[in-house]
Structure formats: structure tokens, C-alpha cells
Amino acid sequence: MAEAVRDSPVPVPGFRFAGIAAGIKKNGNPDLALLAADGGAAIAGVYTKNRVIAAPVIVAKERARKGRARAVLVNSGCANACTGAPGLEAARRSCAAVAEALGCDAKEIVPASTGVIGALLPAEKIEAAAASLAAALSEGGAADFARAIMTTDQWPKVASTEAGAATVLGIAKGAGMIHPDLATTLAFVATDAAATPSQLRKVLASSVGATFNCISVDGDTSTNDTILLLASGRAKVTEKELEAAVRGVLGALGESIVRDGEGAKHVARIEVSGVANDAQARAIARTIATSPLVKTALHGRDANWGRILAAAGRAGVAFDPSRAEIRIEDEVIVRGGTPVGREAEERAAQHLRGARYTIGVSLGRGKGRAFYLTCDLGPDYVAVNANYRS
Amino acid sequence: MAEAVRDSPVPVPGFRFAGIAAGIKKNGNPDLALLAADGGAAIAGVYTKNRVIAAPVIVAKERARKGRARAVLVNSGCANACTGAPGLEAARRSCAAVAEALGCDAKEIVPASTGVIGALLPAEKIEAAAASLAAALSEGGAADFARAIMTTDQWPKVASTEAGAATVLGIAKGAGMIHPDLATTLAFVATDAAATPSQLRKVLASSVGATFNCISVDGDTSTNDTILLLASGRAKVTEKELEAAVRGVLGALGESIVRDGEGAKHVARIEVSGVANDAQARAIARTIATSPLVKTALHGRDANWGRILAAAGRAGVAFDPSRAEIRIEDEVIVRGGTPVGREAEERAAQHLRGARYTIGVSLGRGKGRAFYLTCDLGPDYVAVNANYRS
Is B49 on the interface with A (CB under 8 A)? Predict the structure, then answer.
């Protein structure tokens, strides 16, 4: 079992962090972050599945594939996506400037970017800031790093725990609606565990499947989504210990991202069961979790099970509606496909006043189950997204 | 070619219409509508593809399948969905009461309902109102009918045209976001054309494919969606003439529904071309048309092509982003996958100030093309949907 997961940063032997303002964001907020593994680190990554891939992701995939890296360079304020050959050039030039400051090869620097799509990364600003960025590196700099990668985030997202003798520290950004959109998710996990790149890939794939892929942040959406796991190799742990810790850290980061959904007031866990298999349950959970009508009803604290059931009905999965049961926390509001009654709905609506609740949807006798985390959809989401570029 | 389509009702030989208040809606607004073909009519229908099907749809399918009907009974204020056996019983009892008032068999009455899901249709209110409803029937009653089937609609939706010697009159309701939701679409088209049920089915299928299925109102969403086409058989026309007229009427009704999107300020036509086939183009057009991030950007009159391109990229269709071209009306803002520049975007943003505009997305050299109509997503959508049941 994993140790408890904290939302505070801890030092991780072998890593230093920095976050500064380099003038990429117009408002002068921190926008440039660096994670450096001074002795190098094993690395594995998962990336967006979008057909439109940002320049930094193209460069990051190419470099992380080798399994070793010296540093991760992240900027906010500019996604450097849809920028063609000049975008690739800007990403590489930025890495080269930081490599020079660190005294390593440019190809050992893995880039990531988030922000507005279509704007070319201002490499000259990163070149100008590279020396100060490297000078700002410190073992306790994770909080600065976390702040510098924020875009529409309301708070920095950090999670840490132990994996046997090793420490695991995760830092993320993201505050989209989130799925089915392109709010970029970036997450970086550093550990002093000893692990090979292929072990890291395995640990990352299984951890992401059970965490970020269940929170409406599918990685198949933004042009820039990137999750990187780096290990400095100082502490001996079992793969199982490491997997539990990474999963715990990514789980906490993912929930923080959903809680920070643009304009969201609460987090709903949609649990689906009773269909033939897990994939079907997941399709239904996802359809419910991404339905604007369900999400606006949650915002209005309305136990509107009709929208939930209708969303389930259009997920493309066969089920018998007359077996459907829906509950909010422990309050059953639909049984046998029909409503239990107004009193039950009023009690259920009380649960919707909480910051976090579970909506259970049971559709029959099958063994398939899955969950999705989602958030409500309020007017603030529209305000944030209608004016994002201005 | 079809004649011009008007948004005003016209009498259709063989049909009478009525719309009254029967107390189903709490606010006392009209909520019960009747379309009567005094000499009977040939009928064809298309219905929701949701797994959760409302009671009136189950009854309507069963009855319209025979190809002949005497009347269509519609109520707003209650969807009678997820109401089990009592829901079916209420739908049948309501039809029976109206059949008695009309002097025909209950099975000749086709029901449709729209409103809140999960509430049982108050059949006793319809029984009490049946005689007045029948007494209110008149050849000029289409406007009353249109008002009585409204739910969140801001205006009644009527379209009429000629098909050779015949008249075609359509009446619809719907004002959802709309896709991917469950805002019910109801549409009823009456014509005095002479046509067999199988001709009507053919005409309806081809007309819906080119109209309602391209407006984010797919029929695979709500529990209650129903489109019925009735022909009283008095005027001789060719199938081709009839098809053009029905398509024109459904096209006008569909666009009116999108324009009336909950809280929407404008209608965008998303045209996709340059991929391998029409189905791929449709998948991309649909993904763009239903993206909350694209729709909120339109609300902010932001020519945010990055969100458009990223939405295209997650539609599951292969294309080369470096060939992508995006235009707003005639203003090209992306060419070769990269932005043309700020000035072009500013000119494009001017087009977004209009009530209706076209966004063209060309992705390569393929012959596939498709379009979708959509609307912007503003804070009013959230306000309407968060408080719909209260």
C-alpha cells in the first residue's frame, strides 16, 4: 500500500527546481520553470493523442524516448502549438540556452509548454532568462516551479508521498472543464527511486490509466498534454512500491485539477456498474461526466437523475432501463428505472451541497464497473473561456 | 427546386390544429396541442435513438408504424419519460380521451411529450381538457399549436412552403445547446400531398439526414425526440417535389432551433472539407460544433482557431495538420497549419459579430465534406439549465 499523500512539496534527492518570471505572460507572473536532475535521471512520458501536436511535445517525445534526461524546461503563457517549423526551432533554441547554463547537451533537456495556441514561443525571452533560471535552482524550489506552470489554475498543484525508502513528488497544472476540451494537463513526477526507463514506462502507464484517464483529462484532447516521470536512482524500491506511490501522487494531482475546474464548485465521482464489461461502464461514466446538461444540473444542486439516465442512454451501450438504479451518496433516487420520489430527491440534493460526492449508476447484473471524476459547469466557466485570449 | 420557405403558418387542406392550456405547466401557459387529419392521413416518423425511450415515443412508434393516423396529440411541461408502466398507461389514456372527443379509435392518435423527465404525465388533466381541445381545432390553429409545444423556446417555430400543387407546413420545438444533450426536438410536418407511407418514410429519412442531423440535433440524444410527417392526400405531387419542400421546411425549422439555442447569440455553420470521405468530415464537423471551448470562444467573438484545430485533431480522423486551412467567412486565418497573422484574425473577428457566419475548415486534398450548424455557449445557457426544474 502507498503511504499517505500530502499536498505539500518535499525535497527529492537528486533534483532541484526553479520558477521565475521571464516576460512570456503579459501580466508579469512567473512563467518559466525548470526541473534539473544534476546527475541525470531515467525518464518516461505519456503525451497527448491529439492529431495536432504542439512543437514542445514533438521535441519532448523524441528526447524522452532515449530514457535519460538532465532537465525539464516548462513555460506557461504560450503553448507553442500550430507554429510549424519556427515553433520547433523556438523549442530547441530555448532548450539549448538552458543547456548552456546547466553545462549539458541541449538534447538532454525535455521541453513542455502551456498557454495560448498559435503563438510562437518567444525563444529570445527564454534565452535572456536562462542564466537566472539556472541560478534560481534549489532543492526546495518545487513550490516556485508549481506556480510558474499555472495558466487558469486557481492554485498550484503539488502532491508527495513515500515509496519505501524513496520519495515521490508530483507537480501538475490544469484547470479545464476539463474533458472534452483542450485544457492542457502537464504533470511532472520526480523520485529518487532506482528504476530503469522501461520500469518507469510501465509504472506510468498503469498509474495514468487509474488516475488521469478517469478524470476527464484523457490526454487525447489538448495539443500539449504531457506527463513525465523522472527517477534519479538513489533509493532502492520495488516496482510495486513505486507504482503505488506514483498512482497515489497522480491520483491526488488529478483530483486537484478537477476540483479546480474552471468555475467549478464541486467534484462528482460518477460510478457506473451492472453492464457487461469495464469498457462499457467507462463509456457510460464518461458520457455522464462530460454531459453539459448533467454538469449544469450539478451546478444548480439539482438531483436531476433524468439527465443522468438520458446521458447513460446515449453512450452507445445496451442496457435495460427498467433495471436502472441511481443514487447520490447513499440516497437511492431511481429504482427499476423510475423515480423513488420527491422526498428522496430532496435528501439527495442535500448531498449535492457538499464539495465532493458520489453518483452511483447501476444498470443491471453485469460485472463491468468504472468511475470518472467530473465537476459542475457554472457561468464562471463561460466567463473564463470566452475571454481567455483577450 | 423547392419554393421559398416562409416562417409563417398556412392552412393545409385536410388538417386542423389547436393549442390550449390544460394545467400541465405550473405557470398556466399553453401546454396541450392537437393536430387532426379529419379524413385520416398517411404518416411516417423518425425517433430518438437513445436507449432510454419515453413512454409517448414507445406508443407513437407502435402506432405510426401502421402508416395511417387520425391525429397527433402533443403536450409540453412533462416528458413522461422514465415513468415505467404507469407512463405508458397515462399516454394511452390521454390518447383515448382525445379519440373519444374526435370520434375515432384511440390507436389512431399518435402521442408526443416534452418537458421534465421522470414526472408522470397527468392523464386526468388531459382527460378533463380533451373536449375543449377538440373544440378549439381550426384550419388556422397552427400558431396556437406551435406555442403550446414550447418549453425553453424563446419563440414558436413554424415554416411553410409549396411542393407543386401541395402545401407543406412544419411546426417544431427545441432550443437546446443542443447536441450533445437531451433537449427534446419535436417536429411535425403536415402536407396535403398524396403519398404512401413508404414514400413519406423515404422523404423523411433523406430530409432529416440533410437538415436535423446536421444541426447538432441528432435524434440520438433526448428520450423524447420525434419527427412526424403526415400527408392528407389531396394534392398530386412528385416525390421529388415533396422531398425538396420537406427538406426546405425541416432545414428552416432546424436553423430556427439552433438560433434559439439556450442563451445563444449567433449561429455558426461549420464546413469541413479535404478529408478522405464525408463520414470523416462529419465526425470532425461534429466535434468542432460540440466543443464547449469552441462554443465559448464564439460567444466571446474570438477567432480562436487554435481551439477549432485542436477539436478537429481529437475527432479520431487522420489528417496532416500542416495542410490545415481555416477561414471565417472569406477571411483565411490559418494556412499550412499556422496562423496568417493578427490582422487577418481581427478582420475575422468582425464576422463573428454577425448573427450567422460560416467557419470553413479544409484539411487536405480529400473529397470528403460535411457541415454542422451550431451556436455559441454563453452564461445564459448555464442559467437556463441549472435552474430548469426549479
Answer: yes
Interchain pair B312, A52: CB under 8 A? yes
Taking the C-alpha atoms of residue B60 and residue B184, their distance in angstroms, rounded to an integer, is 15
Q: Is-cis flag, bond preceding B180, omega within 30?
A: yes
DSSP per-residue codes, A327-367: EETTEEEEETTEE--HHHHHHHHHHTTSSEEEEEEE-SSEE
Closest CA to B256 of B189, B190, B185: B185
Q: Would you say the ipTM is above 0.85?
A: no
Number of neighbouring beta carbons within 10 Å of residue B158? 23
Nearest to B382 among A182, A291, A382 (CB): A382
Q: What is the CA radius of gyration of chain B?
A: 22
How far is C-alpha B136 from the chain's CA centre? Answer: 26
User: Which amino acids of A are annotated catalytic?
Assistant: 184
Locate the chain B residue with the closest alpha carbon to A384. Answer: B296
Q: Name the E strands within A194-312.
A: 226-235, 267-274
Find residues 2-41 of chain A whose CB sits inside 8 Å of chain B.
none
Question: For the segment B21-70, what is each residue's pLDDT rounded down to a tens digit?
Answer: 999 999 999 999 999 999 999 999 999 888 889 999 999 999 999 999 99
- Tell me whether residues A321 and B117 touch, CB distance under 8 A: no
| Residue B221, min C-alpha distance to chain A (Å) | 6
pLDDT per residue as tens digits for the range B323-352: 999 999 999 999 999 999 999 999 999 999
CB B139 within 8 A of CB B11: yes
pLDDT digits (tens, 9 = 90+) for B212-269: 776 654 444 678 889 999 999 999 999 999 999 999 999 899 888 888 876 677 889 9
Chain B residues 351-370 with CB within 8 Å of chain A: none
CA atoms within 13 A on the CB side of B266: 20
Give B323 to chain A, closest Cα distance, Å.
11
Whole-structure pTM value:
0.76
**Residue A212 contacts B where some CB pair is shorter than 8 Å:** no
CB-based contact, B50 to chain A, within 8 Å: yes
The answer to whether residue B326 neighbours chain A at the CB level (below 8 Å) is no
Find out whether the peptide bond into A321 is cis, omega within 30 degrees of 0. no
